[in-house]
Amino acid sequence: MTSLKTLMLQNLNGQLPTTQGFLDLKNLEYLDLSHTTLNNSIFQAIETMAALKTLKLEGCSLNGQIPTAQGLCDLNHLQELDVSDNDLSGVLPPCLANLTSLQRLDLFSNNLKIPMSLSPLYNLSKLKSFDGSGRGQDVGALPKFFYHQFSLQSLDLANNQIKGEFPNWLIENNTYLQELHLENCSLSGPFLLPKNSHMNLSFLSISMNYFQGQIPSEIGAHLPRLEFLSMSDNGVNGSIPSSLGNISSLQVLDLSNNVLTGRILSNNSLQGQIPIWIWDMSSLEFLDLSGNNFSGPLPPTIGTSSNLRYIYLSRNKLQWPITMTFNGSSQILALDLSHNNLTGRIPEWIGGLSDLIFLLLSYNNLEGEIPIQLSRLDQLTLIDLSHNHLSGNILSWMMFTHHYFVLYPYYYDDMSSSQQSFEFTTKNVSLSYRGRILRYFAGLDFSCNNFTGEIPPEIGNLVMIKVLNLSHNSLTGPIPPTFSNFKEIESLDLSYNKLDGEIPPQLTELFFLEFFNVAHNNLSGKTPARVAQFATFEESSYKDNPFLCGEPLPKICGAVMPPSPTPPSTNNEDNGGFIDMEVFYVTFGVAYIMVLLVIIAVLYINPYWRQVWFHFIEVSINNCYYFLVDNLPILSKFGFS
Known about the structure:
With 641 residues, the protein is an alpha/beta fold.
């Protein structure tokens, strides 16, 4: 064992023993204990491994401060140290300055105080890679440690609140720099280019900051080797500089969500028409210009040299029919044109995109029927045609029914896979989906259109679907029993249609269902049994189905109904038996009291009428008295005394 040079013990269950005998490996050069539960004594136990060059302790449940005693700081030959994804806190031991051979230092996803930790380590001048991406801590100014670095090839400071302007001097000082991650760092001001052209920088992500102003027109000349450029979620304005079209290596361009508030919209966002040269960039695979103010029509054609696979143009002001075509290109995987002002019909050529996985055309003004060609896209996992004016019958879709795994370029496996995102309504809420989850997401949304006819039972073959929304149409007929095949469905919305028949009882076998709505239809019979997920659905899921009964509706199945809308007559009601006498008496009494109160009020307010009234009463009493006196002899003959 003493001659061992490489030892990898990742993902061990239980705590690894760190006794002197177990780790007395004097010739060991490579030690990887990632994702194995350890405690901080490991930093002292490795002191005998004098030849160690690589130490990986990623995700080992380490916490607190790194001990400053002998151990880690004695590894003079150490070139790579990875303590990422732990819960380390405080400052790094100043003695790490002894590790003058260190070339790679990974500290990301800890609670370390980055500026204070790095101040004593300025003499680590051989660093080629540094990852200090954090958990949102306030770093302040960029640590002066980086002013002493001239050999960096990769630098990641994402999710640290650095603030200040873009540190273009970092690019100028490190001529070998290839990757720079500064997303979500609270940087502001204009985006500053290095003074001279940088021939090695290939990856630049400065998204989710507060940059303003225009994208520098010389960006293509100063950063000619870029492969990945993300400036999303900032406040840049103006137009896309044409020099970007000269970067022949550019594969990913993300300028999404750059709209600022302001009265003059054209001065606060990317605007105007999408430049035509973008569609002819031979290396570009991923294009995201969503969330801006681009207007006008889409291009008529996509060049034959284009390698575009992902096109995201949602939430702009694009107009006119979708007339663009892809010349001989079927490699498009994602097409998002939602939230625009597009008109006309869905073009048939979309059916020729045989590799298409995501198709989003929602929130436009599209009309007509769905082209039959779209039903042949058997790789589709998500299609959203909601909130348009589409009509006709729903096609029998043949969407992909298995999990899919897209083969991404090398940089998509980590940060860049998160570049893919879209909005989709599920469980009655519009959510944003981003990153790796898209590999497992499947859904169909045809809501808020004018579709008619019955739901094709073949839709039940979409066994991996997560979301199905056909609400707010004019669909008729029954709910297909084949819907019980949706074993992974989480949201099913069929509300606001004209569906009839009974709800298939087999739907209670959908154990992942969290949202269910069949309200506002013509369904009949008994609601599904209150078991499993269906025990959680309330009255709102079934309401306004006049012939539906059972819990949670108030209408009880099998209840005795009134025999006739006309009640039978009684002895006291000959021809007026339909009158509710109780209501009649109450009404008459209330009316009598109201009239009496009005008379009293008039007499109280008007003295003249009060005098007339009492005079009338007095005269009436006298008349009655004299009538009785004059007729008393006659009345006595009949027995009245």
